[in-house]
Structures are given as C-alpha cells and as structure tokens.
Amino acid sequence: PLNLSGISLQGMDPRSKSSENPLLDTENSQTPGGTKTEMWKVFYMGVCFLLLNTAAISQNLLPQIYEQLGYDSLGTFILLTQSFFYVVGVLTVPGLIKNWDYKRGINVGAFGYIVVLVAGAMTTACGENRTLAWCQQASYIYGSNIFFALLHGFTAPMFWLCGNRYIAGCASDEKKGQAMGTFVGLFSGALILGSIISKLTITRFGNF
Hints:
By secondary structure, this protein is an all-alpha fold. The protein has seven helices and no strands. It is 65% helix and 0% strand. Helix 2 (62-68) packs across helix 3 and helix 4 runs antiparallel to helix 5.
C-alpha cells in the first residue's frame, strides 16, 4: 500500500479546537509530542502498522500459491482488484471521511486488511482439507476472495490517511520529525518480516 501522509484533509487537524479526536489525550498534554504518553501512542501505532503490512506484503505470493491449490488465476485477479480499488479509494476517500474522527477511519481501514487476510487463510486451508464447509463450493472461494479484495483496496487509504495524520497530530512542531521517524521506522520493518514470511512460505509450499 502507498503511504498517503502527503494528503491533507480540511477539518481533520487533531490539534484544532473544533476537531473531535477520541484518540488524542488532549486533557493530559498541552504539547502532545513532548510527553512519553504520546510517544508511546506513536510506538503503538507503528507496531500495529508493522503487523498488518507484514501480512499484506506476503500477499505477493498469492498468484503462485492459489494456482498451486487449483484456483487458476484467482490470486492474480485479487491483486489486480486490490490495486484498482485502491486507486478508486485514493481519489474518493478524502471527501468521504472528511467528517470522520481518526478512530473510525483507522478501524475501518484495519478491518479491510483483516478480512482479506482471513479470506486468504481460509482458502489456503482448503489445500490440506477439502472437506471444510467453505471449501465445498469453488464459487464461494472465488466470490469471497474477490469481494474482500475489493473492500481492502477501497478502505486501505482510510487506514493510511487517518493513521499518518494522527501521528502528525501526536507531535508538537519540534517533535514532529521524531514522531514520524519512529512511526516510519517501525512499519518499514514489514519489508524485512514480509520477506522472511515469503521465504518460509516458499519452503512450505515448494518452489514456484
């Protein structure tokens, strides 16, 4: 997924008096980025993004894995669907969520990540046990994977946009660089972990 930190939403400045942001502890800190509490929130958000993106990066193996499981070009179609609706989301999401608080945007975006990963796990489970209820109809496998790929692609911009804007709001002007550096450094670790998982997956399923 692309980093959408450059996109700004009017009316979503977390330090604005008129904005409602349940994630920020404005009562206990007048300079959010200057307290250990706020930097802990930055660390927590970085770890959450790290975990979700580690799993998402491993999705690059879907075409090969699904083809090996007998689902033809389903994996490729999933990646294309995600990419297409990601572009649609980038173009439309800022206007749709301009009145949302950060918590709702992050939760909806994270839900999109989670459901597509669950769909993938359920599909790969069919490779070892075709008697599972959801493995009986190929149309269910195809339909659920494509629908959740669409959902994930469209909601991913909400996750990145609200998450990055929240991190920026957790810091005073003097601490903004430190907060964003910590956040980016943490979730960038997904590149390493995702590669390790891909290697383990290839070892488990064999060379493609």
